[in-house]
Amino acid sequence: MYNVGSFNVGGNGRYSAKNNLRPTNFTYLAPQAKHVSVIGDFNNWSPNAHPMKRQPDGGWTTQVPLTHGHHQYLYLVDGAPTLDPRAQGAARNEKNEKVSLIAVS
User: Fold this and answer.
1) CB-side exposure of 38: number of CA atoms within 13 Å?
2) pLDDT-based confidence at residue 2 (cuts at 50, 70, 90)
3) Architecture of domain 17-104
4) pTM
5) CB-CB neighbours of 83 under 10 Å
6) Which is higher by pLDDT, 14 or 38?
7) Which residue(s) pair with 82 in the sheet?
């Protein structure tokens, strides 16, 4: 096994893109909203894990570190689950509900 910098190459400590976290930006336009958060498979659909910050233009933003792959998510706008109109795709979750989809590479 070779030690290269801060990660190992070879053996059980092999480099894997799946273990890397990528800062991923989420943006949602809801000027009338009082509270917006992003919920998804990356935070166990927890409404308190990733609250979004209101911007002067009425948009809401947050950055979430995500692993490589596809992730399902929704915006929670004043308590109402909301699809992302700018999502890269859509899917159905285990309850057959429509959710937004984002790919991270």
Assistant:
1) 27
2) very low
3) Sandwich (2.60)
4) 0.82
5) 14
6) 38
7) 75
The CA distance from 52 to 37, in Å, is 5
The answer to whether 72 and 101 are in contact (CB under 8 A) is: yes
Rounded CA-CA distance 53/99 in Å is 22
CB contact at 8 A, 47 and 39: yes
Domain residue limits, the chain: 17-104
First to last CA, the chain: 26
pLDDT digits (tens, 9 = 90+) for 75-102: 999 999 999 999 999 999 999 999 999 9
Handedness of CA 56, 37, 95, 71 (dihedral sign): positive
Tens digits of residue pLDDT in 52-64: 999 999 999 999 9
